[in-house]
User: Which sequence fits this backbone?
């Protein structure tokens, strides 16, 4: 009975089929899982490399250098400028950072408190030594960007420039306009605006409607100017003549 069962062609065919099917499944399994096995091996090798003594030593060296740099900074007694010079060790190929300490240089120091004109005239000029009003520009800071401030800035710049050239404006009145005209009131100069009137006979008379200038000059000149006459030893300019062009003297662009 068993012999007939084992020699039956259907039984033999089934056994052969199961063997072939099992072998095929094994091959398919090996083929499909091979990439995952390789990835696991590479990951294990990478983790092992991260824990090698050379890398551990590099990490310790970096930590030591960082700690030493921090201590140097905290214990410094005066400000220094640290320049970092990068070099490469030809033997190990490891980048080495060398700290070089030098005294702070003042050659290229830029003053952070330099005040600049809001009208495009550049920084305020340096006040010369011995100038009687060293804070001459301070009053401008509270005036806003008005035409009055522009006129005063040109006026003050001109005063400083004249002082540098050896021209003192002490006891000289200075009146500027935003268009760059600056009038200097010397004791022997007046500025006038002429007015006219006609009498009953139709004769036209000239007189000074406006007289400006130094108080000494105006007090002397006014009696003459009211009659249309020129005062002696006094220079009379008819407005708007007699001004100094601040833009031209200071070399500023309009």
Assistant:
């Amino acid at each position: 009975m068993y012999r007939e069962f084992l020699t039956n062609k259907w039984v033999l065919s089934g056994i052969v089929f199961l063997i072939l099917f099992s072998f095929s499944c094994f091959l398919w399994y090996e083929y499909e899982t091979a990439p995952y096995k390789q990835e696991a091996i590479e990951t294990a090798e990478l983790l092992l490399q991260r824990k090698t003594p050379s890398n551990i030593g590099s990490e310790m060296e970096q930590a030591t250098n960082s700690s030493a740099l921090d201590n140097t900074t905290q214990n410094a007694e005066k400000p220094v400028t640290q320049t970092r010079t990068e070099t490469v060790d030809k033997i190990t190929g490891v980048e080495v950072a060398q700290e070089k300490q030098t005294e702070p240089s003042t050659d290229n120091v830029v003053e952070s408190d330099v005040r600049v004109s809001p009208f495009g005239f550049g920084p305020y000029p340096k006040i010369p030594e011995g100038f009687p009003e060293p804070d001459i520009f301070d009053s401008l800071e509270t005036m806003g960007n008005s035409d009055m401030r522009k006129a005063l800035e040109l006026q003050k710049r001109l005063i400083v420039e004249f002082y540098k050239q050896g021209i003192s404006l002490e006891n000289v009145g200075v009146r500027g306009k935003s268009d760059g005209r600056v009038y200097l009131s010397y004791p022997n100069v007046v500025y006038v605006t002429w007015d006219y009137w006609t009498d009953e006979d139709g004769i036209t008379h000239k007189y000074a409607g406006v007289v400006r200038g130094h108080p000494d000059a105006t007090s002397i000149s006014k009696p003459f100017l009211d009659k249309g006459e020129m005062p002696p030893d006094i220079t009379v300019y008819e407005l708007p003549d007699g001004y100094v062009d601040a833009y031209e003297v200071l070399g500023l662009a309009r």
